[in-house]
Design a protein that fits this description.
Blueprint: H1 28-39
Length: 46
């Protein structure tokens, strides 16, 4: 895929949006952002 994990990242991969669980992210700010994004109806058109 051309993407490789670096620095503090153990791994990187793609998931379908319906499989993303915001609770699996360590940073509170990231969890909040992902939760907000997933609640938006516009993401479903991608």
């Amino acid at each position: 895929s051309g993407i490789k994990a670096m620095d503090d990242v153990a791994d990187c991969f793609f998931l379908p949006l319906d499989k993303v669980n915001s609770e699996e992210f360590g940073l509170v700010s990231v969890r909040k952002g992902i939760t907000k994004f997933l609640k938006e109806k516009c993401y479903r058109s991608y």
